[in-house]
Design goal:
Helix content: 55-70%
Radius of gyration: 20 Å
Number of helices: 7
Structural class: mainly alpha
Distance between the termini: 33 Å
Strand order of the largest sheet: 1-2
Strand content: under 5%
Largest sheet: 2 strands, antiparallel
Shape: elongated
Order of helices and strands: EEHHHHHHH
């Protein structure tokens, strides 16, 4: 087998010939993983960023500027709609597989800020810097912060994956780079 050829196998050896498992992977070209980070990587962030962005605009008191003010985000009346718009635009770009790596960058920043601003006070059990512990938080500490951060960490890792690997060969990004498509 050529050295750059991706090889897939089922760790337990239970797949029939010709079937592919992502349980184990060997080879140097991770972009060949199931022919498509596009389907896994693009649809996962879609399920979070696009609806969250829409809700920040549709329900500003609950999820947009009002929530940002309660958390302690500076300039919440500006940042709420701005972050909502970025999540919508970048979420749509990722769904389309268009400028995927570029679209992943602001989403990574959003997730890092979201974790620092909302989960660190839960971890510490008190306000942290300018960020406030929610008054209705019943549990604090490591396990409470881990529980509350699970979606954020999943979206952060999904966005890092897309930044590293791209959208895959079935995306509009890949279509633009094919010979004869310019």
């Amino acid at each position: 087998m050529p050295p750059n050829h991706a090889t897939f196998f089922d760790c337990a050896g239970h797949l029939p010939p010709g079937k592919v498992s992502c349980l184990c992977y060997t080879g140097s070209n991770i972009q060949r993983l199931l022919a498509g980070p596009f389907w896994c990587g693009c649809l996962l962030p879609w399920s979070y960023f696009l609806p969250e962005g829409i809700q920040k605009l549709a329900f500003p008191d609950l999820l947009g500027a009002g929530r940002f003010a309660r958390i302690g985000i500076p300039f919440p009346e500006i940042m709420g709609p701005f972050i909502g718009g970025v999540e919508i635009v970048c979420g749509l770009l990722i769904i389309l597989g268009l400028y995927t790596r570029l679209a992943a960058i602001p989403l990574i920043v959003i997730m890092v800020v979201a974790i620092a601003s909302t989960k660190t006070p839960i971890l510490l059990g008190q306000d942290f810097w300018i960020f406030h512990l929610p008054a209705d938080m019943k549990r604090v500490g490591f396990w409470a912060a881990q529980h509350e951060a699970r979606a954020h960490f999943t979206m952060l890792l999904g966005s890092l994956f897309l930044l590293t690997v791209g959208a895959g060969r079935w995306s509009l990004d890949a279509l633009q780079t094919r010979p004869g498509m310019h």
